[in-house]
Write a sequence for this structure.
């Protein structure tokens, strides 16, 4: 498996950790931000709502963006909103970073899933997808309790810094290893009659999804 897949999975791990880690830090955030406990708890709800709304929206938005640009855009946005969240003293700003972070998470995951299957041979696509989504599983098992523990030891802002820091290797990996030109999400495209008439003998390919990765 290409090493970049594991770094993309690391980014998914950071994003999954961010979604739920605040559930163990609600009272600390409420005290620091001088808001009620339910208001602090809504920071987790805001992220969940952002994911629900953002998944289809970001998938459509990034449909024809170059894959590397889409991944970098979503990942850098996710990283930066956690830096802002770690620094802000405003509850409203913190709430906003949760929504924006969720949208970036949704977009990154959609593009990363499409990218993972193009980095490996056809018979390894299932394994590549499982490696990528393994970041979410690991986040639930290790990241969420780890982020909560980190926040309790060094303050809830430390958990935000940790998520931002974990995202950095993935930014480097995307820059160096992801092909820049292919669309983020490929849609079927019919082959013009003239093209099919002159194609070399062999099974016809009717869409870009059938083309080998190297020809994109």
């Amino acid at each position: 498996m290409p090493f970049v897949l594991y770094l993309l999975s690391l980014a998914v791990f950071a994003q999954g950790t961010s979604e739920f880690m605040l559930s163990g830090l609600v009272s600390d955030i409420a005290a620091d931000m001088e808001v009620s406990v339910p208001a602090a708890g809504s920071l987790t709800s805001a992220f969940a709502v952002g994911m629900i709304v953002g998944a289809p929206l970001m998938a459509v938005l990034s449909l024809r963006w170059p894959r590397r640009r889409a991944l970098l855009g979503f990942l850098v946005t996710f990283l930066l909103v956690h830096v802002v969240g770690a620094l802000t003293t405003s509850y409203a700003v913190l709430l906003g970073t949760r929504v924006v972070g969720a949208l970036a998470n949704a977009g990154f995951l959609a593009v990363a899933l499409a990218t993972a299957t193009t980095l490996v041979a056809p018979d390894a696509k299932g394994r590549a997808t499982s490696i990528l989504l393994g970041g979410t599983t690991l986040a639930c098992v290790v990241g969420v309790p780890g982020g909560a523990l980190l926040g309790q030891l060094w303050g809830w802002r430390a958990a935000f810094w940790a998520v931002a820091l974990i995202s950095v290797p993935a930014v480097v990996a995307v820059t160096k290893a992801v092909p820049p030109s292919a669309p983020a999400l490929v849609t079927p495209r019919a082959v013009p009659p003239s093209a099919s008439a002159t194609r070399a003998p062999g099974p016809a390919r009717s869409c870009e999804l059938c083309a080998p990765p190297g020809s994109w």
